[in-house]
Structures are given as C-alpha cells and as structure tokens.
Amino acid sequence: SFSCCFSSQVATVTEYGAFIKIPGCRKQGLVHRTHMSSCRVENPAEIVDVGDKVWVKLIGKELKDDKLKLSLSMKVVNQGTGKDLDPNNISLDQDERKKRTFRDYTSQKITLEAVLNTVCKKCGCKGHFAKECFMQPGGTKYSLIPEEEEEEEVAAAGQEREKKPNVAGDSSKKRKK
Fold first, then answer.
1. pTM confidence score
2. Which of 14, 12, 80 is nearest to 41 (CA)?
3. How many Å apart are CA 105 and CA 128, to the nearest integer?
4. Which of 17, 102, 137, 157 is buried most deeply by CB count within 10 Å?
C-alpha cells in the first residue's frame, strides 16, 4: 500500500539519491535527491551515509525490464518518529503537477510572441497594448518647464544668432578697405 512507512538502512549513495534496503527481501528502493528533504539537495552524500538508519515511505512502483523499481521518499516521513507527514499523498500530487507544468512552455511562447507583434492603438508603437501604453493624451504632462519660458529661450537664442553674422560681416568690410 502507498502509506507504507518503514525504517531501514542506506545501502549506497549516488549523485542522484540513495538506495535503501527493503526489510525482509534482497531488493532496494531509491530515494531520489528530490525526495530526501523539503529543501533542495545538490549532493545526497551530505544528507546520508551508507549504513545510516532512515525512515522512508514507498511512493511508487514501476516495472522496468522485468525488474520492479521502488521509489521511496524521506521528506514525507518525520525522520525522528517515523510518522507519515503526508498520509493523503498531497505533496506527492503537487510534485507531479510541478513536473508536468514545467515541461510545457509552448503556450507561454505563443502569448509572448503575440504581445511582441501587437501594435498599440494609442501611440502606434509595437510590443504593447493600448491599456499598457505610457503615452499620455496631450503628451505635455511630462514636461516640467512651462511652455512660455521655452518660447522666450528659443527667441533669445535666435537674436544671438542674428548678431554673430553681423559681426563677421563688419570684419570682412574692414579687410576690403
């Protein structure tokens, strides 16, 4: 049955998990590193050693090449008391769901491309929708300088430009004499 928790010894430790002796037979079950702890496990040897007593729960059976492969989990069993922390296999279902959703990126890609190829009805630019557009109606909301001052500055700059050519003109007249 699935809610079978038992204490056993670690037979071997590999880079992807630990093989646990199954009591009463010569079989071993694998605790994959993703099932050793609720935290991320990079190196299973940091968690267990050969000969360690651990509490495990049988979470899966698979027949592969006429061999029965047993999947075990340590993270759903209290390592101190052996109490099943997940009697209804809820976290197991969540793990399975996570694996499935991560594999399917196709739908995300399509929506992304659709956004990139849209043209905004407000400003005519690509890559966003009108409701996300940052162009404000009127367009002058961002300018901090009042418009009147701007016009005066432009006019003043124009006068200076007019004076300069006159100076240049005077000097050329002097040379001719």
1. 0.54
2. 14
3. 21
4. 17
Of the candidate CATH numbers 2.40.50.140, 3.40.50.720, 3.30.70.1140, 2.60.40.1180, the domain formed by 5-100 belongs to 2.40.50.140
- Strands (E) in the chain, as ranges, are 5-14, 17-21, 28-32, 53-64, 67-73
Tokens of 134: 């940052």
Please, what's the b/e burial string for 137-176 (b: 16 or more CB within 10 A of its CB; e: otherwise)? eeeeeeeeeeeeeeeeeeeeeeeeeeeeeeeeeeeeeeee
Letter for the amino acid at 111? T
Kindly list the domain boundaries of the chain, sorted by start residue: 5-100
Q: Quickly tell me which residue has 């279902």 as its tokens.
A: 93
pLDDT tens, the chain, 177 aa long: 345 799 999 999 999 999 999 988 889 999 999 999 989 999 999 999 999 999 999 999 999 888 889 999 999 999 999 999 998 888 877 777 766 655 555 555 555 555 566 777 777 777 666 666 665 555 444 445 555 555 555 555 555 555 555 555 555 555 555
